Amino acid sequence: MTDIGVWTGALGPLTNWPIVPGHETVGDVVELGPDVDNFDIDDRVGGLYHGGQDGACMTCQQGLPQGCHQKVANGVSKHGGCKPIAPPSHLASQNRNHRPRSLLTCRCRGRVRLRPSLPRPQTVAEYCILHTNAAVKIPKDVKPARVAPFLCAGVTVFNSVRHQNIMPGKTVAMHGIDGLGHLAIQYARKMGYRVVAISSGDSKLKLAIELGSHEYIDASRQDPVEALVKLGGAKMIICTAPDAKTIGQYVVALQWQGKLLILALKILPMCPCFPLTSLLVAPA
């Protein structure tokens, strides 16, 4: 989704054209910056969306580097690990004197340079550079193609769910079985929650059960909010593909002091609207 947003220009000023996209990079270290002491040559490492922070601003000092005022985003504000792309036509005029590069050879302090280890060289950059404070070591017996999604979608839902402090045994509903949703269902099940998956169609029923969902609500056949209320509501509802109307409806299906967790990149304006009385009345 992020790479598509880079290509289409939907991320706007966040994108530093020209750019090599890709923020789920897996590769082997081939060169170290002079200050690197926590990685070695030939280590296999991964690069996330978060590409670095200054460590000095207010949010960094609060232990929230993802909100750094000078944060770096792999594949968005700095070169990532996918195939180089030119700007879309409506942005080309702004960058006509620049061309993206597939080979990044500069040596930078506190960074490592990687050789992507995916099997298709036409789909990844030959080299990319990662900040050491935004790189993670990966076992070499794990296939890069299997671990790459965890570097963005995986860490997004895992950290978001665990930080909500929902007690095991509580009901957690998942709206959407997509790139984020299918991982969130598995995490929630392993964390000991009663998982309710919400999607449309019989095909998603089988997938939801295979992923670990206890219940499945087919939104194409019944009102998902009413169905969730009949199940007793949810202590947390996770939306990975929300819109304002859906969010407003789901609030009434939350249990007392329940949480609505929104995990989606939404380009269009989104303002959840719901009656304030829904915050005072929990599902029976």
From TrEMBL:
Residues 2-81 form the Alcohol dehydrogenase-like N-terminal domain. Its cofactor is Zn(2+). SUPFAM superfamilies: GroES-like, NAD(P)-binding Rossmann-fold domains. Keywords: Metal-binding, NAD, Oxidoreductase, Zinc. Residues 179-279 form the Alcohol dehydrogenase-like C-terminal domain. Belongs to the zinc-containing alcohol dehydrogenase family. This is Alcohol dehydrogenase. It comes from Fusarium torulosum.
